[in-house]
Specification:
The chain is of the alpha+beta class and about 300 residues long. The protein has a domain of about 120 residues: Up-down Bundle (Glutathione S-transferase Yfyf (Class Pi), Chain A, domain 2). Strands 2-1-3-4 form a 4-stranded mixed sheet. Helix 1 links the parallel strand 1 and strand 2. It is globular. The chain binds glutathione (GSH). The site of glutathione has 11 residues, from loops.
Length: about 300
């Protein structure tokens, strides 16, 4: 690999390489006209089961499990590898062209306009506020919850865009960026481990939206599911993170939320779209085409 000397002006004249080279572009806005589908429920979610997407489907399933029937949702699949996030309908709900994005249509029947919400942290906060759930009311606990929620929003790009990109997706392995981001991710795991040594959950004794947000990224990393980097980062050594990760993974709502809009992994873990609670019993990929799926690799 030769040393790269940046030109005085960057130009988009060749693909950057790497796994997402075909969708990466330096301009915002839509590339094609395409309306988004709208289902029957108050909330219309457009997403994919990446960590950022899973945060929100876990929150919906937790709300429903806690008896908030008004949190019924349709989860539509957005295939980011195929450029669905650049359709005009998607750009209208998220000008940043990234999943997850939400239309809150809960007041449409009362004559109000639908409300768009993008950025996973904003969606969690919007829903938690609306339903008065998974967000402590005590001011100190609430501040702690929001601090960890926003910690996640600021930290995960170092894990995904930094470490994950250079360790797993970049076309060549380079020591400098992998070293830099591995160091930062291990520091972040240590931050979490110290917090969870003395607290059941991130905000204290209550499971909150902060846990949902952080778990989707760092829980998956701790389980060795992110970037096949479990051994490299020695994730098993963060014992308090491991305890918290395993406990949250056992929650039925988390198990359901992880399946929604998933298009990778074992067929029994994939519910491509969710339009009804019964879809978990009837529309999981392994139930749709068992003959084809019996040969599918994880
Ligand atoms: N800060 C955003 C990040 C969202 C994000 O990066 N989404 C990715 C998938 S995890 C995406 O849609 N990427 C498509 C693209 O970059 O074109 C959030 O938390 O919602």
């Amino acid at each position: 690999m030769t040393d790269y000397i940046p030109p005085s002006v960057w130009t988009w004249d060749k693909a950057s390489g790497g796994k997402f080279a075909n969708i990466n572009r330096p301009i915002a806005g839509s590339t094609h006209e395409k309306d988004l589908p709208v289902g029957k429920h108050p909330f219309q979610l457009y997403s994919l089961a990446t960590p950022n997407g899973v945060k929100v489907t876990v929150m919906f399933e937790e709300l429903l499990a806690a008896g908030h029937t008004g949190a019924e949702y349709d989860a539509w699949l957005i295939r980011i590898n195929e450029g669905d996030q650049f359709g005009s309908g998607f750009v209208a709900v998220n000008p940043n062209s990234k999943i997850p994005a939400l239309w809150d249509r809960s007041a449409v029947a009362a004559g109000k306009e639908p409300i768009r919400v993008f950025e996973s942290g904003a969606i969690l906060l919007h829903l938690a506020t609306k339903f008065g759930a998974f967000l402590p009311t005590d001011p100190a606990k609430r501040a702690e919850c929001l601090s960890w929620l926003f910690w996640q929003m600021g930290s995960a790009p170092y894990l995904g865009g930094g470490f994950g990109h250079f360790y797993a997706y970049a076309p060549t392995k380079q020591e400098y960026p992998i070293n830099r981001f591995a160091m930062e991710v291990k520091r972040q795991l240590d931050v979490l481990d110290r917090r969870l040594a003395d607290n059941a959950y991130l905000a204290g004794d209550e499971y909150t939206i902060a846990d949902m947000a952080v778990w989707a990224w760092y829980g998956a990393l701790a389980m060795g599911l992110q970037y096949e980097a479990g051994e490299f980062l020695q994730v098993q050594t963060y014992t308090h993170v491991q305890r918290w990760t395993k406990e949250i993974a056992q929650r039925p709502a988390v198990q359901r939320g992880r399946m929604v809009n998933r298009v990778m992994g074992k067929p029994e873990s994939q519910l491509h779209e969710r339009h009804d609670a019964s879809d978990f019993q009837t529309k999981v990929q392994s139930m749709l085409n068992p003959i084809v799926n019996s040969d599918a690799k994880p």
